[in-house]
Amino acid sequence: MRIHDNAPTNWHDEIASWFPTWYQNVLEMDALWRTWGILLDRLQADIQRVLDNFFLTRCDEETIEFWEEFMNIKLAVQHSLEYRRRYIMTHFSGFGKCSATQIKNIIRQYTGSGASVSFEKCDLDGNHELIIIMENGEVEDMYLQDLQSILEKIIPAHIPVTIRVNKEESTATGYPMTAMTSMDGSMHVTAENYG
Fold first, then answer.
1. Rounded distance, CA 44 to CA 39, Å?
2. Ramachandran region, residue 73 (left: φ > 0; alpha: ψ -120 to 50; beta: rest)
3. What whole-number distance in Å separates Cα of residue 109 and Cα of residue 151?
4. Taking Cα atoms as reference points, which of 51, 111, 104, 106 lies closest to residue 83?
5. What is the mean pLDDT of residues 119-128?
6. Rounded to whole angstroms, what are the CA distances from 39 to 10, 24, 44, 100, 177?
7. Do 103 and 45 lie in a common domain?
8. Is the pLDDT of residue 129 over 90?
9. What pLDDT score was predicted for residue 45?
10. Are residues 45 and 113 in the same domain?
11. How far apart are alpha carbons 33 and 8 in whole angstroms?
């Protein structure tokens, strides 16, 4: 909800209604009302912009650039404003203790849909790996490399990770990246028709 939803849509007419009717035909008064109306329209828009900038889901590009610089976020590809907002929100999902719930929350922030997280045996030596199966969700421009960089900050380096993405056949060609392995070989990301 906007804070000024109850504000007049036309400040000129609103201001003119405050004065006696005999001023309606005075050109000088009409010029003053138009000027005041323009100033109030701009003031209302500026107040709304300042309030919107307090929320990552509604902030403008200048505020997003501030957060990217402050958090030292450098994305490899130029992304839309909505994507950049989502990416910054995932950083606020929390770092520190790694849990399945935390990983699910990060993925939900990033994709808008859920994920399943399991810790399964991966070889005969008894080693385990973290398996994340996630949905494509409502995101059209999901870059797995960006999600991987977020997860690498919370998942301990000695735990191998496999990320599988459930996706529709129709979006299979729209994926910017289909497979990736981290530098140390501990995280494998695949975008495939899984399940």
1. 9
2. beta
3. 12
4. 111
5. 83
6. 12, 20, 9, 52, 48
7. no
8. no
9. 87
10. no
11. 14
